[in-house]
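[agent] plan:
  1. take the single chain provided in the ticket
  2. run structure prediction with default settings
  3. attach structure tokens to the ticket
  4. add a short note for the reviewer (M.T.)
[agent] executing step 1
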Amino acid sequence: MKRYFSTLKTLITLVLITTILSCGNNPLDIDVSKVDVKLSVKRFDQDLFQYKNGITPENVGELNTKYGLFLQDFTQSVINIGSIKHEDINKRLNAFTNDTYINEVKTDVANVYTDFSVYENELNEAFKHYKHYFPKKNIPEIITYVSGFNYAITTDKAYLGIGLDMFLGSDYKAYAQLGLPKYKTAFMSKKGLVAGALLGWVATEFELKEKNADLLTEIIHQGKTLYLMDALMPKAPNTIKINYNETQLNWCRANAEPVWFYFIDNKLLYTKDTKEIIKYMGEAPFIQGFPEGSPGRIGHWVGWQIVKAYMKKNPNITIEQLMNNNNAQEILNKSKYKP
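[agent] step 2 finished; step 3 output follows
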């Protein structure tokens, strides 16, 4: 089994190539000013905590009228206190809202996200792009909430929920107390909120339906997701879209060739071994067995580059066609990917 990497070969040319590419026009940076999208944003994190004298059964009815399916998902799945139809659900909600720890978190959320308009505007712009590429698809309403550190994003066909307590800053004290590692909390901040929400939406709208998929299929699927993020957030830095810092991105660029040939030489593209797939696709501070500096999820980055090459080589392919193409081998072949 070959294991070889070299960071020297491309370091000089990397700077030149990056400079040249940054000067070119981005074909995904399109004018969507005439696309008719107006997001509905609801602050459940505020509405749930507004009842100073406690939540009554009538209040639950009010919340149910306003939030519908989201409220059911919130009580049953996010904070796991049962169905809203339970006879004492108001008491269970009161237990949640009166919890001292939850109240501290709610206060921190209120301080950080007093004004949500800047994120609303960014999401609105992103969904204009989404509507442009997928005119028949539904635009969800945005619902913000406090999850008790359970879920950052929740989705259904009608809504996109954002757990604001999961975006309080990489150094937020509770994250360390919960034992969350730095590589996971790096983008759990205001700067990562919009991309995190969009990734959550895209991941559920375009799920990988193939069971027991091989590594290549997983790589291409994640590459398609990241390319769609390029289309939805054409002005956003790549670091935000893939949750890498610049050092990690530079490592990927400098090692693109040896990483690719490592997959080829070790016959990894068609493996269905779960451990192998998780090794290259899963969250991790680094790739075990790779040189220092290698970031986790390296397969996501490789897939991103393949899909970029595919779309560049096949300019008549629409983004909708790309996302509906589940033939990973075809995309790889037609990409003519050669790092």
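[agent] step 4 note for reviewer: The chain has two domains: 11-25+210-335, 41-205.
[agent] ticket updated
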